[in-house]
Amino acid sequence: MEGKTVLGVIAVSIAAIAAGLLLTPKTAMEKRTHLPWQIVANSDGTSEVFGLTLGRSTLADATRKIQESPEITMFVSLDGEKAVEAYFEQVTLGNVRAKMVVTADLSEQQLEQIYGRGLRISKSSGGGRKVTLHPDDITLVNQTAIGAITYLPRANLDAEVITRLFGSPAMRIRERENNVVHWLYPEKGLDIALSEEKKEVLQYIAPARFGQLSTPLMESGTVLE
Questions:
Q1: I need a surface site. Which of 105, 115, 129, 224 has the fewest CB within 10 A?
Q2: What is the pLDDT of residues 128-144, one digit of tens each?
Q3: Cβ distance 98 to 88 under 8 Å?
């Protein structure tokens, strides 16, 4: 986790291009920035990806980078956990198309206050609740640092392609209730969730806070060899 680690740009095969990654030969790829595997781990425990620094860059910074206005909503899980997320429907960074969810790094007190000022509460598709934010709180969220980024590529990324682009994971954990396998890269602050039934999901968090992702998985899942 100490020092800086920059992932090299990797050329992919024609098969991967046909799969929709929109990647070009290595000579052209080396000129591109803000690609999903270009992660810099800083000595202070933060990390940089997509031109944003987790824990330092704000949601407003992400909006300027992506050049799309997100839908900002609070979600409350079935167990009462609250989070404010900004959803970007159309993201094209490094000529790779995806969807993105940016989570605001808010304190528990701030989340409770935002919930109390919510304009409307309705059921979410996952069985929890979603809250429409007061305009003042949208301003607050835009000025808040990014806590995590969830990246949903349009292309299918199988295990071979992920290994070539991101390297081998430090650990793999299978969720016990389904077939989702998490590839964990703690030094990069990255969790890649793979499933035969669903699209791949990449979640980025500052390496110093990686335990927030890995600990619940280790407690509820099965570590694979």
A1: 224
A2: 999 999 999 999 999 99
A3: no
Phi, psi of 105 (to 5 degrees): -85, 75
Domain boundaries, the chain: 14-219
| Residues 36 and 201: beta-carbon distance below 8 Å | no
Average pLDDT over residues 76-87: 96
Q: What is the pTM of this model?
A: 0.85
Chain centre distance of CA 98: 11
> What tokens does 16 get?
């991967």
Residues contacting 192, CB < 8 A, separation 6+: 157, 162, 166, 169, 182, 183, 185, 200, 201, 202, 203
Across all residues in the chain, what is the average pLDDT?
87
Helix boundaries (H) for 71-158: 108-116, 135-142
What are the phi and psi torsion angles at 177 (to 5°)?
-90, -5
